[in-house]
Amino acid sequence: MTTYITKIPEFNREDIETSSQEWLDQVIKAGDANGWNAVRILRTIPYFLKGTAGEWFENLAVPFNDWNAFKAAFLEQFTNNNTSITLRNHFQNIKQELSESVMIYIGKFNKLLRQIRQLETNNYYSDAQILDQFITGLKDKLIKKICSHVPEDLNSAIQHAKRYEMAMEEANCTKLANLAIGETSSAAEEKIDQFTKKIENYFTNQQQQPQRYQPPQRQNQNNFVPLSNN
Predict the structure, then answer these.
(1) How far from 66 is each of 26, 40, 44, 56, 58, CA to CA, in Å?
(2) What is the pLDDT, as a whole number, of residue 217?
(3) 102-119 and 154-180 helices cross at what angle (nearest 10)?
(4) CA-based, 20 to 30 A from 161: which of 41, 62, 214, 226?
(5) Sequence-distant contacts of 90-95: CB under 8 A, at least 24 apart
(6) Confidence (pLDDT) at 4
(7) pLDDT per position as a tens digit, 4-54
(8) Res 175: pLDDT
(9) Cα 121 to the chain's mean position, in Å?
(10) How many CA atoms does the CB half-sphere of 77 hold within 13 Å?
């Protein structure tokens, strides 16, 4: 039975969580950790190729005995235009789930964006489009809060989202605590509103000329996939 210090992750092209290049990088790291040479890695990886990737390997006329040859063929097979379109579609429809924190959503968002940029070196999305997509993917309450200001860039929008979520969590904790000591629900709600207004005033004061955020105009071009179906 083979013992792994670091196990090679499975690769399934139907699962976009890991790009083909990211998977190859993980294979190399696992091979180094396990003390394997290229021949041993090539003998091992077929067991971790699933779905269409496994079928592709099984149907090879001649097995690979050279790592560079396998890497080139693997990337050619699983890094293509269809993969880019799939990633774009997921990116353009990404949403923060009700049970997700802002940090989890940020992680999903940045990972998809990184995968797209690895496949496409021509900056398919502009900074304004990326900012727009990040904001529209947030929970409705956070969208309303952020759109009352003008985030300068993606990093600014991320910081605003994290602070607003923290403020709302603290407000909810305050409400529960006040209810626990016998305070009426309406009184607790009033304190939450006061606390929220303080947060909003803080962000308003950070803007010299407060304006409402306006998403960029989207244009349909021959080489552009709209960010929404609207």
Answers:
(1) 18, 11, 13, 17, 17
(2) 52
(3) 160
(4) 226
(5) 90/16, 91/116, 91/133, 92/133, 92/225, 92/226, 92/227, 92/228, 94/133, 94/137, 95/137
(6) 62
(7) 678 888 888 666 667 788 889 999 999 999 899 988 999 898 899 988 888
(8) 56
(9) 18
(10) 16
Q: At what angle do helices 20-34 and 102-119 cross, to 10 degrees?
A: 100
Among candidate residues 186, 187, 185, 98, the one with its CA nearest the CA of residue 142:
98
pLDDT computed for residue 63 by the predictor: 77
Kindly report the backbone phi and psi dihedral angles of residue 218, in degrees, each rounded to the nearest multiple of 5, phi listed first: -105, 130
What gap in Å lies between CA 110 and CA 117, rounded to an integer?
10
Mean pLDDT value across the chain: 76
- What does the pLDDT look like over 46-79, one tens digit per residue? 899 988 888 888 888 777 888 999 988 888 888 7
Do residues 2 and 31 lie in contact, with contact meaning Cβ atoms separated by under 8 Å?
Answer: no
| Spatial distance between the Cα atoms of 26 and 110, rounded to a whole number of angstroms | 19
Name which of 118, 218, 119, 23 is nearest 226 in CA terms.
Answer: 218
CA distance 42 to 86: 28
Residue 87 has pLDDT above 60, yes or no: yes
Report, in this order, helix, strand and coil percent for the chain, each rounded to 5: 60, 0, 35
> For residue 191, what are its two tokens?
């304190």
Amino acid at 128: A
- Give the whole-angstrom CA distance, residue 65 versus residue 73: 12
